[in-house]
Amino acid sequence: MTGANAAPVIEQTASGKLASPLLFVQHPLSPVPANALNSEVVSAIAVALAKVGQYDRALQLIQRFRSEPWSAKALSSIAPTLIETGKIDRALQAIEGLESQQQQALAFAESASDLAEIGQPEQAIMFIDRAITLAGLSGKF
């Protein structure tokens, strides 16, 4: 935008200092320190990507933060979209990429519920069995 009516991109504050945004992300996969993001932000971005068919980008975003304790929660936010659209193999791949067995067990259990809801009981049982094994509960019930 040019001309007399153009608004400046960066405005000055009353003290004369330049105002700048707190966090600017050019691309969901651009380098941003993990502590600058939280599970809600990553989950919201990943869900939006998955809903518009950008499954690979959604999974890459979550995989990027797979060592964070909240990564299973972020994954579980897009797993229903992946499962509903028949991308069960991608949901499986993403779950297997989580760093801890506890995170994997949680994600498998939550995804099993999603599979059962869409009428995929065989797949749901497979996911439940994986969750049980990863949680160390085999043979305990």
Description:
This protein is an all-alpha fold and 141 residues long. It has a domain at 38-134: Serine Threonine Protein Phosphatase 5, Tetratricopeptide repeat (Alpha Horseshoe), CATH 1.25.40. Helix content is 55%, strand content 0%. It contains 6 helices and no strands. The chain has helices spanning 39-51, 55-64, 71-84, 88-96, 101-117, 121-134. α1 (39-51) runs parallel beside α3 (71-84). The radius of gyration is 20 Å and the shape is globular.
Summarize the structure.
With 141 residues, the chain is mainly alpha-helical. It has 6 helices and no strands.
SSE ordering: HHHHHH
State the low-pLDDT regions, or none. Answer: 1-13, 18-26
CATH hierarchy: architecture of the domain at 38-134 = Alpha Horseshoe
Strand content: under 5%
Straight-line distance between termini = 67 Å
User: Mean pLDDT across all residues, rounded?
Assistant: 78
Shape: globular
The number of helical runs is: 6
Please identify the structural class as seen in this structure: mainly alpha
CATH class descriptor name of the domain at 38-134: Mainly Alpha
Which tags fit this structure?
disordered N terminus, Serine Threonine Protein Phosphatase 5, Tetratricopeptide repeat, 55% helix, 0% strand, 141 residues, mainly alpha
Set down the secondary structure blueprint.
Blueprint: H1 39-51, H2 55-64, H3 71-84, H4 88-96, H5 101-117, H6 121-134
Helix pairs in contact: 1-2, 1-3, 2-3, 3-4, 3-5, 4-5, 5-6
